[in-house]
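Re: the 223-residue chain
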Amino acid sequence: MTLKLYCFGESGHSYKAALALELAGMDWEPVFVDFFAGETRGAAYRETVNEMGEAPVLVDASGLHLTQSGVIQMAITELSGKFGGETPDEAREVLRWVLWDNHKLSSIAGMVRFQMNFLPEDKRVPEVIGFLKGRLAAALEILDKHLEGREWIVGEGPTNADLTCAGYLYYPEEFGFDRAAHPAVDAWLSRLSGLPGWKHPYELMTPAHPAVRGKFMNEAVSK
């Protein structure tokens, strides 16, 4: 039974779910959500897809209907047996990092990236961007220190902790993240992208923003 993931390429939270599905080898397909045209803010989306007006959303014909990336990742673990940790202690530690990421890392990275790249220039607030960059730098410092001497965030292999914390860190747009300034994070991202089946978010999901879509399509044609 094919799983369907409502998502769009610029969404790092969608990428967490899409990458988990892909690396788990599950039968799934993306359903494009036109976020930048206001689809998630429309009544139809909120009434039939997600009352919270967000992506990602995971559904199937059996009635499965899940929102929030962390919940979707948990369900993928239940369905595939992967990425949940090898012991109860590891499972709790994975959840700890998922919760931390959603509050401290991905949420901040998503906001500052949106401010710097997708808002019209006249609506960007330098003070807000500066504040968010500071918060992001603090979170990245925590992650970098934790990864020193480790290959993965929890245990001996990739888990949902890795997939959630990496959600925004492969995007090419400027948002205050310099891989070279965080060597342990840089090495970890290279390990993750070296896994069989790994794909960039713009390969797994359709870019939605016109500027990103045009650039991505031009690059794809030139390859």
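The chain has two domains: 3-83, 88-193.
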